[in-house]
Amino acid sequence: MRLLSFQIKQYRSIIDTGVVKLSDHDNISVFAGQNESGKSSVLHALRDYENDTFENNSLPFSTDARPIQQVSCTYGIEPSDNLATKLRSALVKNFKLTISDDEGLIDAPKINGIKQFTITKTKDGEKTSTEIDESTFNIFCNAVSEIAVLPATSEIEETVVEPLVNQIVVAPLVDEAVADAVKNLPISEMENDQVANIFWTCAPKIIFFDDFCDLLPDRMYISDLKAEKKEAEGYTAVRNLEKILKTNFVDKDAEDNAVRDVKESSENKTISIDFQNDWAQRIHGENEVVIKYKYRKLDEGSPKGSYIQFYVETREGQPLPPKQRSKGLIWFLSLWLELKAQDIDNDNLILLLDEPDQHLHVCAQRDILQLINKLSKSKDDRVGNQIIYSTHSPYLIEVEHLSRIKLVLNTEIEGTRAEDIVASVINTEYKKDALQPIAYAIGLSVGEFSMLSKRNVLLEGVSDFYYFCAMKKVLKRVGDYQFVPGVGLRKIDNLISLCIGYGLEWLAIIDDDPAFGGKDSKKKFDEIKDHVFDGDAKRTKEKVHILHNVVGVENMFTISDLKLVDKNLGKDVDMVKVVGRKRKVLFSKLFFEMIEHDKDGTLAEKISKKAKDNFSKAFDYIERNLP
């Protein structure tokens, strides 16, 4: 079971998000935008939904009234979720029923007809209510409406009850004495909110993490652990560590010294190796951050008695208390303890991470990203956790997975909204600001993977780069050459100079045919002809190819091709206008990502003949003229 979408109304800076659909490609969704855009408000609203209470400070900022607040979550059901079994268990627990495992309680085939359900939690003044969508409510009631069950605790005389113990009885009952004694399971009379709460208990648990997660302390007294003093500094972090190590620090008091020392050494080694697998950055030339605890036994007469001392060691022989280490390292360690412990306790979680990049430099942010990806993947018989995180850091945005990203922006009129990145028209300053970390991440990615090689095809820009890379796969071209994007047509001569200077093979592909409205391509062709080939047009044509009949690389496609990325595109003869100049790089990256994920070639077959012919001509030129 997974969260498909949500909608939030009247929460802090949010007026109405509309239905926000989460990534359907994997278990990770990213809410990206600048500071104060409302990213945190989105996650806080989902947290309040899970906690079944709306915080007082969650009311909208711009009104003195008390508006109706609402959070709706829609969950998708898979056959492997065994929803009927989960609902049966919830009913048994809720009504304290005594029935055997092989006895029915609900009509499983009817329940299996539920493919998704929506739970809405509403706060109106001081009243908070829970509701499930009408379709699911009706299916559920119909699946159990005729069942009557003997409760586990009954005041019925044994002579009447004995034949019926642990039996399901279908009403109406023949024996009036028995009929009077048996309490009907009041499913048919259940209110919508009761059914909603039963479904909610079957849904994945939502766990919220932010900057205030419990940090590992320097020490923890055994007496505080015995008393379950949850307000003690670092209590949750220490309990998480116990869970991961499968140990109990309270038991250390009673253990023999030799036994305790052996366990301590083994457990310190275990937790350190596990942490090192997720913390990859190097400190003092080493990445072996060692986590240690040490039991300190004190006399009973001492103020608080024995305690556990914690250390973090980044250089051998120099263990230091956590508070003397960097905030970034200790925050990462504490978050890591939380995530690992929750992963042990629960399967199929929804984890909310509010700006996990805070306090962390670039390398540590990449470690967080690696941990997020690891926890989201299915392993053995465990379903991967669904993870939703907010960020304005480009280092937590994977350009290989742009379909994960929701653009978060805040306007005075509409409040905070989250838009699908491919459908968002970048036509305001708000959107330009929200887009900044994503655009920067794409720039970083292209910079990393577009170094010059022995054989280079020079392109005008980043969007050309992604389209040509994608179409090379669609057309199954296998040439050994590197596409290298410039930054606009006027900058392509710099790439040519680099290739010539380093003795590398090259050719250039230029769109914007002057016969169809272009100007720069003819001028650039002549410049290259005069400065590189001494005015030799023939030699220039062997190195510089102007795409025929094309003004903008997007016009090599049809509208049907581009609608594979965004089905809501409008109509226009100019595909550049259809896509929009301000999102052309994002659009091309999403096209590339779509083709990369097209393992069986289904999408490749949908690409139009026009697009395939246009790109085939370009690839024929490349293969003909690049040695």
What does this structure look like?
The protein is globular. The protein is of the alpha/beta class. The strands form five sheets. Strands 1, 2, 3, 5, 6 and 7 form a six-stranded antiparallel sheet that branches. Strands 10-15-16-4-17-18 form a six-stranded mixed sheet, with helices on both faces. It has four domains: 2-25 and 35-143 and 187-208, Rossmann fold (3-Layer(aba) Sandwich), CATH 3.40.50; 209-345, no CATH class; 350-445, no CATH class; 450-625, no CATH class.
Short description:
By secondary structure, this protein is α/β, with parallel strands linked by helices. Helices cover 39% and strands 18% of the residues. The relative contact order is 0.09.
Keywords:
627 residues, alpha/beta, Rossmann fold, 4 domains, six-stranded antiparallel beta sheet, six-stranded mixed beta sheet
